[in-house]
Structure of Fe/B12 periplasmic-binding domain-containing protein:
Amino acid sequence: MENVEDTAKSRLDELKSPALWKNIKAVQKDQVYIVEQQLWNRGIAPIGSTPIIDQVLKIVK
């Protein structure tokens, strides 16, 4: 069974390596945030969106 968090981290590391990553304005302004993948994947209903909103509020404070 594949560990989703390890896979996500590995993919993020791949994305960060090219020079393209450094040219993204959000990256330059330190406005890229890592979120819980499973939380965001299942938050499609109104009740499911509440934990997502909570996570966003933690990040932006």
In short: Helices lie at 4-16, 19-22, 25-28, 37-42, 46-60.
